[in-house]
Amino acid sequence: MNIKFLLCKEDYDEWFAQRINPDGDAGVARFLSQVEIEAAFSESPPRAYPCLVYLKTSETNCLEEEIVYVYEDEFSEWIHLMGLQREGE
Q1: 16-68 per-position pLDDT tens digit
Q2: How many CA atoms lie within 13 A of 4 on its CB side?
Q3: C-alpha–C-alpha distance, residues 11 and 23, integer Å
Q4: Which of 33, 3, 8, 7 is nearest to 20 (CA)?
Q5: 13 FRET partner, CA 20 to 30 A, in 6, 30, 67, 76?
Q6: Residues 65, 87: contact at Cβ < 8 Å?
Q7: Rounded distance, CA 15 to CA 21, Å?
Q8: How many helices (H) and strands (E) does the chain have?
Q9: For residues 33 and 52, what is the distance between their CA atoms, to the nearest angstrom?
Q10: Can you list the pairs that 40-43 forms with residues at least 24 positions away whose Cβ atoms lie under 8 Å?
Q11: Is 45 left (phi over 0), alpha (psi -120 to 50) or beta?
């Protein structure tokens, strides 16, 4: 699993561009129009920054991947539940 830390929209744009075009100019993006690329970028951006992002296999179609975001509040809650947070934090 490849997890990426996104601090801002530019990080998201870079991560998503790599996702749709991993081989640079020889990738899938050469078959997409500019409108299709822009639509893909705006399809499911994170709701807030910073966040973690990773891809997981879709539960409904094993040939597709879903984008999963983990936000700061969820991460903080997980740390607390796991007992990893130090006293007083």
Answers
A1: 988 877 776 655 556 778 888 788 888 889 999 999 999 999 999 999 999 99
A2: 20
A3: 18
A4: 33
A5: 76
A6: no
A7: 10
A8: 3, 3
A9: 28
A10: 40/16, 41/13, 41/16
A11: beta
pLDDT of residue 88: 58
pTM over 0.85: no
Amino acid at 38: E
Structure-token pair, residue 78: 């997980």
By the 8 A CB rule, do 36 and 64 touch?
Answer: no
Q: Where are the domains of the chain?
A: 4-81
Token pair 């740390």: residue: 79
Q: What is the DSSP letter of 22?
A: T
